[in-house]
Structures
1.
Amino acid sequence: MVMFRLFILCSLIAVTLFSCLEKTHYDDPSNKKIFRYNESEGITSLDPAFSRNIENIWACNHLYNGLLQMDNALNVEPAIAKKWEISEDGKTYTFHLRSDVRFHDHQVFKNGKGRTVTAHDFEYSFNRILDNKVASPGVWIFNNVDYLEEKGFKAFDAIDDTTFNIYLTKPFPPFLGILTMQYCTVVPQEIVNHYKYDYRSNPIGTGPFKFKMWDEGNKMVLLKNENYFEKDEAGNQLPYLDAVAITFIKDEEVEFLKFLSKEIDFISGREGGNKEEIFDADGSLKSSYEDQITMLTHPYLNTEYLGILVDDELGIVKASPLSKKLVRQAINYGFDRKQMIAFLRKNIGTPANAGFIPKGLPSYNPEIVKGYDYNPEKAKELLVEAGFPNGEGMPEITLYTTANYVDLCEFIQHQLSEIGISVKVDLTPAVTHRELIARSKLNFFRKSWIADYPDGENYLALFYSKNFAPNGPNYTHFKNTNYDLLYEKAQSETNDSTRYFYYQEMDKLIIEEAPIVTLYYDQVVRLIQKDIKGLGINPVNLLTLKTVQKEAN
């Protein structure tokens, strides 16, 4: 018994010393260069097969690499693939892989050392996205691959260790952009098999940072990958940072105060109750903070909208006045987007008075695609036509949202009440909100779509009937035969002008059928501490930390 107690005491001492060493090694800013940021929405998985939302995408971007990547100007660049060719018919993509990329170290690998990535790993990783047992929400990204075994070849084919082929059913010009998504990063089969469903919290990738710990709801720590394959222009190995620390503070006012006290290095957006302290009325940074904070802004390929479930096979749709197109159109006419952006967003962003494709993409054209302006009289006429004069006889509609967008939804609620539409705003936690939308449990909901790749097709995929959620991004369950025909034509069209014409015709159909209520086209805003260098900004708001430097205190 004495020996047992001594053993326990020694173990506790060892754990305490280890914890102290860990704290000294990773948390002391004078000892290590740690980039700290907060995810108020939380992270649900570190498995790239589930990189559906921006929080998961950022985390996976730190941990993994794919064949290709995008720079801040959204140009497609090599990553693990050093070069590639596309066949003349546009249906075969051949990638030539680097031979110096290794997975992060793990005990499952031989001698605990990460092994070299091969084309066979990509064959496994891409087939895994299509595996029904995995149930990845990214399965739709491979809608155009030819994976019919009876044709005598595989969709994804490792020719040898460094040569990888992908076969498409038809030409699809945006495909290279799709391959830059985090869904398309590489994972090791033996590690996934080892952890099974727990792989979400035990990730092994090839990225600039490797997983250390995740205390869910509290903190996540990623460490520098000492064996990372990319170098800077001077030949110095990336990344420069020693670690990344992510917290999960839900209160954005607390998050903002921590940023002002330099406990957080970076904030995306301008949320938080203290924002009035550092921003002028037009949304610019007050001069008194210019020496303390760097502010970066850029047009954001993000459309904020309200989604409306229109699948008439669902009971919640049949029982709702939103099943009537005229009611959906009345809602679109029934509130002032310009006023909303001016009062609630300090003119950060552009009122969405055109289609679903946002400002910043070449197929965006408000002269051709005309959306909804504020027209309460027109809205009232539509309600009369729908059988609800001044809203009489119309049941109350519930609009589901998250904490960040309550003010916008309440603004819409108030203005719609003036034309006779009664709306109840229901607040749900962000994670719950996403899951309920994916499972078609919410009839009217606030949502956003951030471009995964810079092409209008990425936005229009949300209304293609074969992309019904939860297996794709069609959260409204919109289905229209003419739309589907145009979408399929556009996918194989290599002429940009013709493809953009198809995009605009589809956008017009979305406006007419109104399965959504567009709110605004967003703007990226980044607030950064002055000792952080090399953190750029891009139209998809992808957080890339491999080239970030933090000056010593």
Note: The CA atoms of residues 363 and 500 lie 5 Å apart.
2.
Amino acid sequence: MGMLEVSRNPLRTKEDLRRLTEEMASCVTKQLSPGKAWLNAGETAAKYPHKTAWMEGFLRPLFGLVPFLAGGGQTPLWDTYLEGIKNGTNPESEEYWGHLQGKEQRVVEMTTLGLALAMIPEYVWEPLTEQERENAVKWLSEINHVPLATNNWLFFPVIVNLGLKKVGEPYDRKLMEEALEKIEACYISDGWYSDGSSLQRDYYIAFAMHFYSLIYAKLMEKEDPERSVRLKERGRIFARSFIYWFSSQGDALPFGRSLTYRFAMSAFWSALAFADVEAYPWGVVKGIILRNIRWWMKQPIFDERGLLTIGYRYPNLKMAEFYNAPGSPGWAMKTFLILALPDDHPFWMAEEEALPELKEVSVQKHPFMILGRREEGKHIQALTSGQYARFEPSFMAAKYEKFAYSNVFGFSVPGGEFGLEQGAYDSMLALCEENDELYRVRRTCETVQVEERGIYSVWKPWSNVSIQTWLIPCGSWHVRVHKIQSGRRLTAAEGGYAVSCDTYESNENQEILLDDGTLIGASFPWGTSAIADLEGNRKKTLVKAHPNSNILYARTEIPTLEGAVRAGETWLACAVLGTKSRQEAAACRENPPRYERKGNQFQIIWNGTTNIYEME
């Protein structure tokens, strides 16, 4: 862990989290520029200029330091940060953060200073001279004169103006109200927001829409009581769905964009506690947060300087977004918001508890998902169809439109554009022209229906190719059925979960190849992945995916079925198995789902239940 000593930190108390926050911030301050206003964390780039990235690297750790100080912590690091804030907002300084140029990244990073003004004015405002205050206000107020994206970005002027209001400076109340009304228009129901007009329902709903909502609700509960009550209640309701995204071991479902923010996944729960919303007993909420942070601290996510790297479970630029600069992962520190709670808050007084008893299957229509929990809640499997991020983040189809996502197996992004090894098509149906190896996958759906018994979708990889797909949960199995109407001859490859195939010299015989007629797969002590052909006679193979394509494991293989799709009508069906333990895998293979079809109607028989489905 480089300069961090997390291996010696049990991460169970407020003092433990304070120590982690201070250690992470200390690693940052050791790398700051002479004027302390920039962090050049690396030489890779994002879509915005390097100096903006350096500002981002400096400001994001404030998500940890601000609540650290608000909750009674003391650190000599603050003197360094205050110097950086003074220089960054001073137009005469060589390290001035610069004027806003419209809809750009500096708007995002202003939020941390707004939060600091609102929560710790005695540390960030009162020590400033009159000129330094004028500089800070002038720089922050620029946010009121630039266009904003109509999504989670609407919260940035709200938080900045809230900070200005709290220190008695002029603020744009009208703009705040307009932004809050636009945010209101993003609310769907059942605690779920959309992130603007896009169809993605990912972690931004938790660590942006709800996170900032709950901060506003707490800080404005007296001045804006009606809205604050409404925002808190939405957080309480959302928690009932979101809890299913977390495993009993602490990790969470990897899905969607911006996964390099890592333990920001649990920031929603910190915001609930900050806003005094007891959606579950405090010990349960405490357990979710602390188990998640502990899980992440066991992963190789820091470099030798103690700085967070770009990647997910390991450093990996391949899966990064175009807006991920070297300092971007600092958003993970949002989860440290709980440090603002006083020592005697019931959150800190409660004993950490396990997750409550949860249903084995959770149907969540707003994110278009059916989430299954297996193996005592250690394995989360999400079947999904229909999400689409219309601004097309990197590898959008891989991050949103696979058939299944798993906390045990992760998901893969393409390592190249040619062939199955480069494409790494886990949990996808990939199609190419006959005698070609340039594949297309599902990117968006024309129709989606989410029901208790499965998810139905219609999608078109080409204008003259229409595919109807059913995804049906069957415990650790799930069944996929596709009816393809094609105006061209194609080759189809369908992948199961990608499983880590990393073995070491002393354990070279850990892999067990599964190949018995219709089924192909691989079993390791840490996981079993297999796929069985239920209709037709598809070729079975284990695809060795390009290294670093999977977000959890650097080397993986993908059980895959390959077959022809003729012009006209073709049916494909398979059962996919993914388990964490070999014992569960053996039990599942003794009880596979059965598939029978007659015409456009088919039935799935599993665990003594028969469900009948129909394609158009």
Note: The mean pLDDT is 96.
3.
Amino acid sequence: MAHSTSHGFSRRQVLTGAAGLAAVAAGGGTVPETRAADTKIARPEPDQLHFANLNQPQRYQYTRTSDLAGRRRFAFLDTRQIREIAGAELRFHPAEKHGDPVLECDSSLETGVLLYGSVLHDGQRFRMWYQPIAKKNGSGNPYDVAYAESSDGIHWRRPKLGVVARNGSTKNNLVNMRGHGPSVMDLGPDAPPERRYLGIAVGFAPILGVPEALDHPQTRRHHGYWMYYSADGFRWHLYERPGCSIFHHMSDTACFVHDRYRGRILGSVKLEPRVRLFDRRSVTIASAPTDALTNWSAPRLALYPDELDDRMAVERGARFLEFYGMGMLPTRDLLIGFPETYWVEGGLHPSQVAGVRLGWEGKCEIQMAYSYDGHAWHRSLGRKPLIGLGKTGDWDAGFLTMQGSAVEVNGMTHLYYSACPGGHAFPPGQNTRKIGLATVRQDRFASIGSDGRGMVEVFHGHRSGAGLAVNSQSRDGGELRVEVRRPKGKHSEPIVGFEAADCRPIRGDGIRQSVAWKNRTWRDLPAGENLVLRFQLVNSDVFAYEVKS
């Protein structure tokens, strides 16, 4: 899709385009006719149509060698590589909660802490930009952004930055970026030093109170997302006007991340297209090249509630499901998403036209999604919660949100989320927002597993790299062996020297366990042939395999 500055799109255009994609995805026929000016938003390109129902799993018959070329880590999140499976199954694995909150409010500045924000790791420390819930006595601003840091990701401190004055003092942890839902990205050492950090947050210019925005005719009444830059993440400057203001007419939560592997900034922005009878909170995806940060693509619908979501909502006592937002974690070989699934209860939204919008009360938990390109997103097996609600009375029993707050560090994925014990309507005394932590070992969101003897055969494509490693776990004396085979029609045949009997058994628990054969090495395999890998499992789960560089 051609890039364009987002403020060239009207709300009607954006909604028309999103509704058109939803109609195609739901099997509702062709995209509605539009004027030529609307075509780039409303009419999906052929690759979008192929993946129109973004909630369906990938399948092997749609997978080509080119889809796998250049990848290093192959996580078993779906079925797209699987040629054959017996005695084993695809399994989903929830994250493990840390338990107690890792960050609670500083009563001198805040009444709660909200992780509509970002967590980064710079090789030495974890860095968090979060939203403090302002006190009612004028000591805060609804668009304040605060900062904390940690050496271990569990114990956090609030450094006194000396940047923003509150109550007559700058001895606080506030930064001078303003906006709701601040996303902070480190663009790396190749960026100009004064613009190493990129910040994006939503706000209404008169309340935002940034002089540069109020002094320009195209930005002084803007309600949308603002772009900032910084050398250190503490002292921020608005991007040049009017390109600093992006995504007019979009909703109030978003997540922006630096996808350094693909040279872009990726944003998941909430929108409310008409899905069946009602306006429903959904997720759109937009992007901008890192070397042209004001050149944003049109938002493209990525996740919206479907019939299965609504049936699951009814089964658990809610009326509907909506997507409150979605955090993202770009990795080299795919992107992981964290949809905030909002189980809507009760009646219609009181601030909207009757019968149009739902979703005033309800609870929210975190599911998991994944994408190979950042635009076509697929849901996890069974749509089970990755981070579920706590027990009644727990600090995280009500409403969980998670934006750009996932980081991979030393083989562990850290997932930070904010929560309160009450629902979206914030009952009195239950809006005590705190920030928690859940963890997943690298690539262990899903696995192919067997509690006895099993086998899974996957299409790998051409050999590359110097070796092979597996992310696996064996139990009760179990083991894993890898056999390399050639495809032969719908079947395959083993390659001499790489049969299961030649593979040294892999036991125990590790995210990067080397695969070795008795008399042959990975480099001995032909580089130009398609290969099939057969994993022989005994009381084991294989989560992923990796090509060593």
Note: DSSP finds seven helices and 33 strands in the chain.
4.
Amino acid sequence: MRPTIRVLPNALIPSILDEAKRILAEIGMEVRGPALRARLRDHGLHERDTVDDGPRVLFPPEVVDAAVASAPRSFTLFDRDGRPHADLGGDRVHFVPGSSGLKVLDHRTGETRAANTRDFIEYVRVADGLPHIAYLATAFSTNDLAPEISDAWRLYLTLTNSLKPVVTGAFTEHGVGRMAAMQQLFRRDAADLRARPMSIFTITATGFFRYSEDSCQNLIDCVEAGIPVEIVPVTLMGLIAPVTLIGATVMHVADVLAGITLAQLIRPGAPVLFGGAPATFHMKTAQSPMAAVEALALDVAYVEVARSLGLPTQSYMALSEGKFLDAQAGAETFGSALLAALAGVNSVSGPGMLDYVLTFSLEKLVLDNELCGQALHFARETQVKDDLPTVELVRQLLADKHLLTAEHTLAHWPRELYLPGEIFDRTNREQWAKAGGLELQARARAEVEQRLAAYTSPHLDPVLEAELRGLVASGLPAGAALPEILPPAVGQVAVGPRRRGGRRSPEAPAKDEAA
């Protein structure tokens, strides 16, 4: 067995599913994409006129049940070179950087600012080598090119700096086609891309039981290209969903079941993740934290429902609403990472994110790598490992006064004891002071710089890279150009004080101290 967590009684899960399907059958889903609405009519689904919004498509329970039955119970992501990389399903947990950021917390200056292309290159290069970050995400947008193609530009920068799969998404109604063509360059043909997918695209349900024009067309294009999708409602407890756990779970499940049904009607067998990005809406602050403990309970609840159906899952967890790498950031991230690992979430989006998923931090990402590693270690299967019966180990302990050199210890300690890297301080005070007395932010900054200096770029044929750039540039407005790619100078560390909240913070260590 493995450690688990549950928040729903088993007897409630069928009732939650029945009520969610009743919403889809009687209230319906507003499907704003005309092409997708036409396909639903071809499948015999009917629309009902409503007073307050557009026509809603009704989903009979048997249609939803058939869609759930046809959705794969697991699927594999492949790397850029076509090798199997991650198996999503069961209780296999993968941590992935969060997405949707607009700013970065600059690890050199300590300032939060708009992100640019160099920031994104550095992010990919750091994330590429983190052992507990399973694959990548197009974590934030850059502000140095036309927004019409910024989605494809992020994908280009990922594909040229890493072999790992990526979670991404299109920013416009017709953005998927270009991004699918970019991935197609790394496969023999369309059938090969479908057989060996290298990305997951996010499809967002926009609230009020609605799928927007962009989401509808993106869903069609992804499913037809064979790109797996994650259905991600942003369920705001207390604003557009009940403030109570069960009611919010019902509404969240209805949104996701609709997305799964849409995907399976487009192409039966399309790989889909049962996902979400729930948050609470607190009336006193008018903010909507994903790291709120009630939102985390909703994450665990809808994952339980999804697992009762045998479907692979996604959630936004292992993140923080804090503004800096501080105690709040560590507490919120590790608490939710541990919950995600115990719940068996297959794809956990969040590491590296701060401030309501608006800000990305490389320092936080390298810390989160350690926190996620510990969460994964805790959630391992519990097994007997030559330690039952235990009497002989007791005899050896009493005879030798220790078990340091015992055969059992030597055989098992490398896998049983998790040893964090240098960013996580497990020394005593004297050892810490002798090593320079670096606080967490200084250690995190040193880790980032070390990884940037040690990064090795994967080989990419220049002709193929030119084709990639051509696909991105094809969407540029007249007169616009792609940003220059200026890789960071290897081994150089910016000199100067860090600033945080107007106060001077300790300067980062010199390069030889960091090493």
Note: Confidence is low (pLDDT under 50) at residues 488-515.
